[in-house]
Amino acid sequence: MARLIIVSNRLPVSLHAKPDGTYAMKQSIGGLATAIGPYHKSHNDCLWVGWSSIDPDACPKSEIKSVTEEFKSRRCVPIFLTQKEIDGYYAGYANDTLWPLFHDFAHEATFDSSTWKVYQEVNQKFADAIIEFVNPDDTVWIQDYHLMLLPAMLRSRFPKLKIGWFLHIPFPSPEIFHQLPNGKELLEGLMGADLLGFHTEDFCVNFLASVRALLGLEVDKDGRIPIGSGTSQRFVTVDAFPIGIDYGLYRRNAHSSLAQAMRHGIEAVSGKRTRRVSTSLTAESEAAAEASDQEENWWSAHTSDELPEVELAQSAAAKRGTEDNKVVVSVDRLDYTKGLPERLRAFDLMLSRYPEWVGHVTYYLLATPTREDVETYRKLKDQVDQLVGEINGKYSLLSWTPIHYITRSLPIKPVCGIYTAGDVALVTPLRDGMNLVAKEYLASRDGRDGALVLSDECGAARELTDAFIVNPYDTEAVCEALHSALEIGSDEAKRRNAAMQARLKYRTAGLWSAEFLSTLRQVSDPRMADRRLQSVQRDHLVHEWGQSKRKLVLCDYDGTLTQIVRTPGRAKPTHRLLDLLREVGSIPDVDLYLVSGRTRETMDEWFGCLPIGLIAEHGAWHTKPIEGTTAKNADGRTIAPKRYWRRADGLPDPDEWRPIIETIMNKSVARVPQSFIEYKSTDLAWHYRMSDQKLAQEQRERLVDELQKVCPQYGLMVMRNAKVIEVCPANVSKGEAVKPLLESGRYDFVLALGDDTTDETMFASVSGCASARNKADTHDVDNAGVVKMVDSMETTTTVDGSSAESNGSKPAKKSAAPSAAWTIKVGAGDTNARSRIATPTDTGRLLGYLVAESEAVAAGTGPAPKAKPKSKSKAKKASKSKTSAKPTPKAASKTKKASK
Ligand code: ADQ
């Protein structure tokens, strides 16, 4: 059985020695463990290889054996690294060279040939351990910058192994990458993989620029780098896979009693919950105000400059209501990439520029120190300590402290408590691959307000475009964004969040790993690697969907929404699939049609209850719900809509041709055991999926020959589909069936999905209609038959015989063809479709994206951002000063006042 082998620096579980000498296993927390952990846990065919955190030199051999067994019981393969190896590979090359350089902190990077040597050796140690048990048909998924040489090491031993690699941190611009003495070797190491994944399109662009410059390799239109030539040629695919979070986990934990207790505690201390702080503040400020009114007394003898507390207390008095108090939060590891000193300076500036916030905004800063043995990290800690001390010293009032500084590492529930208490989250890393904190904050505030100030230097900024996006180096911009975020109204904050939350809810950690693995399978199969729907194209499709006014989805069923099975009757839709189709069909500006070769009886039985259109027998029949008949009962369940089936006009008379075709097909049934005829009202189909394939294929050619001689005289045609030979009217095809919809001028977005040759006619119609956009006016005259069908599909006869506009809206100008037209082939084989996805599961995922996007747009913020590659140098960064968080007029006037 083919297995999935995940390889990362650390294992997802760690062992802790107990006092009795035995070990306790502890689940690791963190992005990677939560993203892939559930897959590993629930799949018996999934193994995880990683560093055990145990030094073999400090552990007796017998213990190593028992520890290995302990790990094995959790499907983990431990790698034992000595202290020297850890110092060179992990602390040295990975964290002192690659980490700073990849985060654009070249000045922090050390280049030491001895750590590079150990990095090579440890990568080889991982390779040797994997080679010992891996099978050639397994899939290996390698994580992160610690193991960049591993793909080529495995490839040299297993040419056919499916190998993927994902980078969790940014990939730097080529100018920065070129500073790395061993850059070429690292890239060569990665060229051993089939698929290389990055968080964003920008990082892919940076990576490909370095590949071009250092290896002289180019990427083709399908996002693939060809390696070698001739029969041994293989491809390395590069694409973006933005990691998500387990949204439900954060939403649930935010409601836990521990998180709520934490939230209440923070709100009490910051004066939001009780009047304690506010009362004393009020007293303090009233005393100040009173004193300043009296001439010649102690207070008035001091200017504000000499005693800023007086002014601050006065400003505090301006906001007496505790409901106006606000909490700012941030959660970080204390790393120089997270931009803590810059953020603290911006908070300081905000308090001095907008003194009305003094006494009314409290910043909960959770920053857990890491790598305290390293000088840079120690210095950073000292700097942050000092800044916090300075700000607290400068602004604290008797009963209010601006910053609550927590340096402990907290488990998920208290962290969620902090998120739920935070009116504003300050997430301003100077550079970050993705940044999960921003996403966790939004998930913890599901359905609630709360404003996110987000650095444009992290991957999350490409997705969370409704946040206050700032340049983290620009103190002024962060200050203004923070002020705007504090001032934002609850409704506006909810509206912004709802859009981002709708997308995050769908784009989870589970979706991320499933998409990476599905892409890895697709790119490793030469029959499916061309025309692959790349993430940038998928994002473009989703963006166009969000922007369009009226959308048409044409979707085949067998092989497109569900796997092809041996017995056609067994391909019944699951509840999950029906729910998905119901969701798509229920979006107000969407018309979904299932376009199938199945009989109308089957279509009715399986899908008649859904608010969608149905086209059966390759277009011989069509129906859509009569408007106003789709409703929900008291339980919220959709009541099956009323619908009438309509037969396409001008079809040959079945009584004339059916006995002749049946006789011919019956000969094949007799010759090929387990083959059979399927009877449809306008169509006969010979199925041989369950038969001996060699015998069936020989017979198929004979049958096709014979049928082709007879069919034309009856106006019929022969179709070769997947393990089926079908005879149907020559003037019927999926392409002809959907033309009336395409030419109706009703839609500005069309998506067609299908898996076999019958769907190619549909693709041709969609492409033809899109390319003939400007000529479509003439069609009414040229093709009277088609126009007739337009009319019959556009209007639906109601029970009383009157005619109703099927969508309730007037069609746009007849000649207007869709401006966005997407055709997608599902699976292998030749196609004229624009793009290809691998399996029906991918179809489901794509439809899921569209549902989430419609929800996000409905939440009121407009369409998703179009992915735009962006690469910039450090030099540009230093000079830029931008923020989307423009000061509000109110804020601007205060700025002026403050600067007087
Ligand atoms: P990290 O550098 O670990 O991940 P991040 O994405 O922010 O950074 O994830 C941090 C995780 O740790 C979050 O789940 C957060 O809640 C938690 N955390 C952070 N500080 C904490 C603290 N003080 N106490 C408790 N919990 C804390 C790397 C890359 C990122 C990328 C992820 C996933 O550097 O850019 O997003 O991998 O690919």
**Discrete helix count:** 31
Largest sheet geometry: 8 strands, mixed
How many DSSP-defined strands?
32
Query: Outline, from the CA principal axes?
Result: globular
Distance between the termini: 74 Å
Q: What are the salient characteristics of this protein?
A:
eight-stranded mixed sheet; globular; Rossmann fold; 31 helices; binds adenosine-5'-diphosphate-glucose; Alpha-Beta Plaits; 900 residues
Brief sketch in words of this structure:
The protein has 900 residues and is an alpha/beta fold. The protein is built from 31 helices and 32 strands.
Characterize the structure shown.
By secondary structure, this protein is of the alpha/beta class. Among the domains are: 210 residues, Glycogen Phosphorylase B (Rossmann fold, 3-Layer(aba) Sandwich); 264 residues, Rossmann fold (3-Layer(aba) Sandwich); 76 residues, Alpha-Beta Plaits (2-Layer Sandwich), CATH 3.30.70.1020. Helix content is 44%, strand content 17%. The protein is built from 31 helices and 32 strands. The strands form seven sheets. The chain has an eight-stranded mixed β-sheet with strand order 5-4-1-6-7-8-10-9, with helices on both faces. Strands 23-20-19-18-17-28-31-32 form an eight-stranded mixed β-sheet, with helices on both faces. β26 and β27 form a beta hairpin. The longest helix is centred in the C-terminal third of the chain and has 22 residues. The protein is globular, with a radius of gyration of 32 Å. 48% of the residues are buried. The C terminus is likely disordered. Bound molecules: adenosine-5'-diphosphate-glucose (ADQ). Adenosine-5'-diphosphate-glucose (ADQ) binds next to β11, β12 and α16.
